[in-house]
Amino acid sequence: MARILVPLAPGCEELEAVTLIDLMRRAGFQVVTAGLEPGPVKCSRGVVLVPDALLEEVHEESFDLVVLPGGLGGADRLNADPRIHALLRRMHAEGRYVGAICAAPKVLGEAGLLQGRSATGYPSVVNALDLPDTRFTDQPVVVDGQVATSTGPGTAMDFALALIELLAGPEKRREVEGPLCRPG
């Protein structure tokens, strides 16, 4: 069973966070949500999420994927946390997956993980990044090696399903996607 870490920071985009958590749990993955600091996390639209653990308690554990929800406020807080950068670099060095959606690809960029890769993200955020060696596209989901990125709240379900397929194959994706009654 795949083990996933979803760090949650105040100001994160709740639609993205909850969609990622929900669909990956439907896939049977062990999903651990971790707050940067103690207590509930107030998201960008006022939804309050209660993390499973503190980042400090789990950031050195082994995960198959670390995926960052967006929301500019949350992404900025993740980006300012040296534990997040260290965790992402360690995951990358170990050949494990890292992912980010919406404004959060900026964190992957700051950690040096987008250099020489194709990626996507929230248009105004990626357009403001100074990453000349990164090929940004307007695709809803981009997977380049062990790095997965997505555009924003409207692509959260596609992103979660792509991550499920990366970790468990197309059959697991179909198993999760079928009962969602998505339009064909």
Description:
It holds the Pfam family DJ-1_PfpI. This is 4-methyl-5(B-hydroxyethyl)-thiazole monophosphate biosynthesis. Residues 3-165 form the DJ-1/PfpI domain. One of its GO terms (cellular component) is cytoplasm. The protein is an alpha/beta fold and 184 residues long. Helices cover 38% and strands 21% of the residues. It has one domain (3-180): 3-Layer(aba) Sandwich (Rossmann fold), CATH 3.40.50.880. The strands form three sheets. Strands 5-2-1-6-7-11-10 form a seven-stranded mixed sheet, with helices on both faces. Helix 6 (123-128) links the parallel strand 8 and strand 9 (135-136). The longest helix has 13 residues, at 14-26. The model has no long low-confidence stretch (mean pLDDT 97).
